[in-house]
Amino acid sequence: MKARRNKKQIPSFRKLLKTSKVKLENKLKNKQFKQQSTLKKYRKEQRKLRQAVKDAVSKKPIPLEDPKEKRPGKRIEREEEEEEEALPLDMMDEDDLQLMRELGQRASFLTRDLSSSEPVHAKKRKYERVIDKYEKIPRTLQTAPEKEMIHLLPIKDKSGIIPQTREKPVIDNNQDEEDQEEVELEEEIVEDPIRELTLEEHLIERRKKLQEKKMHIATLASAILSDPETNIKKLKELRSMLMEQDPDVAVTVRKLVIVSLMELFKDITPSYKIRPLTEAEKSTKIRKETQKLREFEEGLVSQYKFYLENLEQMVKDWKQRKLKKSNVVSLKAYKGLAEVAVKSLCELLVSLPHFNFHNNIIVLIVPLMNDVSKSISEMCCEAVKKLFKQDKLGQASLGVIKVISGFVKGRNYEVRPEMLKTFLCLRIKELEVKKDTEDINKPKKFMTFKEKRKTLSRMQRKWKKAEEKLERELLEAEASESTERKLKLHTETLNIVFVTYFRILKKAQRSPLLPAVLEGLAKFAHLINVEFFDDLLVVLHTLIESGDLSYRESLHCVQTAFHILSGQGDVLNIDPMKFYTHLYKTLFKLHAGATNEDVEIVLQCLDVMLTKRRKQVSQQRALAFIKRLCTLALHVLPNSSIGILATNRILMHTFPKTDLLLDNESQGSGVFLPELDEPEYCNAQNTALWELHALQRHYHPIVRRFAAHLMAGAPSEGSAALKPELSRRSAAELFETYSMAAMTFNPPVESSSSKRKNEVLQGDSFLNEDLNQLIKRHCSEAATHFPLDFTKYLKTSLR
């Protein structure tokens, strides 16, 4: 016979996949159902267990009656007595009879009337009355006192739940009374009122506590400094004192601990960044010294992190005005703690730019630069400036610049101008000009063996070999960063700075940040890409022409424009005449009082516009500026006058033909027009520098010297020449040297030499003889007193 053929088709892969999915879903559902059912069972068992415990607690254990005590003879006698005592039915009321019948039916199964179809248990047990329930409990006489029982947790067995009890231990009442008396006596002793301290005693107590805390801090700090690797765990003990709870000394101790920890971290922190260990490094076997170093580094990093978190929390508590539950530190004291915390953060920002969590400190400090509190804002700005000045590589500066740029943009350019003024302290310009590592950029070529053999003797070759080996070791030990890396960092930093500046020029032209932006552009203009020059000059000219700028801001615009044109902008074909005209017009608007800081910007502009671009400046323009500057020197402070006269001296040397201003004769046609704002067309060649005659009688000796020097034609030799300390300094340096910021004479006025007189005049000897006689005559005359009559004067006034 042939094998029977299977008619079922083999299922496809898709069908198998589909059925497998269904099976998996069913399995998952069954698993979930089983979990739910087991959970329900567990809950049910727990509920039963709790109920059993409650029942065991509520019910009293009922002692069973002894069946031997019950005798049948006595029971028969009782029944006969009850029959005798029972009343006949004729003497009972109908209601009582009905009640007795009902009770008789419900008494028991034997005495019940079976003819009635009423169920035995008409009501459930829980609905039975309390009296009936009480009556059902058998009564027994208690000969011995019942012992108190303590109910314990029940035991669950296969048969069910077994309740557990234990006898309560009996305590002697006399002993209880004695103990109670002793407690009362102790309370009486404790409740004695504590004597209140006077203010003086309280201060002495506080001083003692503070001295103890100071000694403890000093002991811990000195132990850590003496051996940091061994005593690194004491940092944790010292840091725990930041949570000082004694309200008398809490604030002072916390401040001392903050400063102590800051100084400790500055001293014991290594000069490299500590990175976390990899799994492979942790598993390898190492020496004890290396293990000790690793433990020290891990402990240091963790404690440094916790310390920074504590400082951050203090600043946040002050900003949010949060009062702690312990109420140890008041809200007023929070500001003092926050100031100390910010100061410590600033110190760590400047001192440890290479160490871990430096970026976290930057993120904390930058928002505080824009803080409402002026002291905190200035503290943070000064710290950032200090960091910029000392950062040679530029890594830390780049991190700060990124955060500041993002913060300014996030606040929609509504920040303090001081934030952007910190950009002026970047060391980019100096490092671009001066190469610190020139010898490392081009590696030194050492002599080959053939060259040595040709030129040197055997002994010389030996010495040369040792010298080259030493030089190689020194080069490796120096390990200074290459110029390429520095330039890369500086380029990235400058890009962020210029993006911030250009955004403000484009979107916030009326912002108070504009002066800082223009000042920054003036400083870094020589580093701007040539592609932006044309557009930038158009923007600057538009700002000047708008009239919305103050004269200081417009001076910054002029300074920026000429910095651009004096550097790479030489290749551009741009006529800056409008900027010359604007500066010429602005000169008479300068402040002549104590706030004459704008004169320094003018001196810098004149140096860039006239001295450095001497080939593009005409003689008429130079004459007009010299004349206007001499006029300006008459009504400004002495240090400004010295700077202006020093600029005129340089201009007279740069343009020799300007000495015609020292002559009275006029050159060419026309009359000088001092009120005209165009320097090319004011006919300055037809005037003279008469202002120098007035300046020769100035009270300041240096101004007098400069005026006499210029009147003599500014010679470099002879009696009218200046001393080297004046002639070798620039105009801006002289302005700073003879500053009048303190409103005192600079240089101070020389004290006149007092001549000793032989005779000391006293009293009348100071007066003239005629005046002395007249005074004596008036004093010798007898004074006559006339009665005063006010009525006549009153009448005349009324008329």
From TrEMBL:
What's this protein's name? Nucleolar complex protein 3 homolog
Q: What is its main location?
A: nucleus
List every stretch annotated Disordered.
27-93
Where is this protein localized, as stated in its record?
Answer: Nucleus, Nucleolus
Basic residues bias locations: 40-51
Which residue windows are coiled coil?
A: 449-485
Stretches with biased composition (Basic and acidic residues): 52-78
Species assigned in the record: Canis lupus familiaris
Give the protein family: Belongs to the CBF/MAK21 family.
Q: Which GO terms describe its cellular component?
A: mitochondrion; nuclear speck; nucleolus
The record's section on SUPFAM superfamilies has: ARM repeat (SSF48371)
Q: Matching InterPro entries, A to Z?
A: ARM-type_fold, CCAAT-binding_factor, Noc3_N, Nucleolar_cplx-assoc_3
Q: Name one Pfam family in it.
A: NOC3p
Q: Where is the composition biased (Acidic residues)?
A: 79-93
In its keyword annotation, does this UniProt entry include Thylakoid? no
One GO MF annotation is: chromatin binding
Keywords carried by this UniProt record: Coiled coil, Nucleus
Q: Name one GO biological process term.
A: DNA replication initiation
